[in-house]
Amino acid sequence: MNPRKEATYRMLSLIVAVIFVLPCVFLVFSTFDMHLDGLWQMDSLIEFICAYKNTVILAIAGVLIQIVIALSAGYAIARVSSFKVQMFFILTCVFFLLLPQQALMLPQYLVLMNIGWLDSLKGLLIMTAFQPWMILLFWFAAKRIDSSLFDAAICDGAGNWVLFRKIYVPIIRSYVAVAAFLSIAESWNLLEQPMTFLQSKEKYPLSMILMQLSTDNSELKNALCLLFVIPLIILFFRVVDNVTNGFHQ
What global pTM score does this model have? Predict the structure, then answer.
């Protein structure tokens, strides 16, 4: 590439990066003007801690349930010998992936009401357990595995559980790490489902508490938002490191 063009592209990339980073910089620096006494003496501190706990529960339990379901489904679909059957399941996942979440709110609400799980964290976990995008990701990862590995293991007497545990899961662990991060980030920012399915304030996740905070004290809200995103930032860099090491190996 022409050196002048390369320098122009780098300058434009730097400008775009600065534009995207500036809001985060303002969020961080605005918290320095806040007195810590205002944070620890605020009336909603207990609600904030309780909401943080609910968010952590939803994120950890949700990602475990989703990965168990998606790993098994992705492996099962990839191992189906019939191409038509595979395409049926794949298209079904694509259909649910493209279906607006708002269209499912009322049926999900009625289901939770009928089974008595409305206004509970377990109801939220059940309604977010099926993630079509994660199934598609694991199916794609399974299809990239050389079939000769499975054939050789089958010739040695390995069953489906051994194939799943010894070949499939270790090879796609980088995909699992990425899917886990995206799942946690999605659970961390849940808003529509808690607004629809939860009525008790002590069961609200952190996203709803932040939404309901008054804008009169912007420094306080910025500080709480910063505390909200710090775990995801740390997790992101851990996932990047894990994925990078996995590809190098």
Answer: 0.79
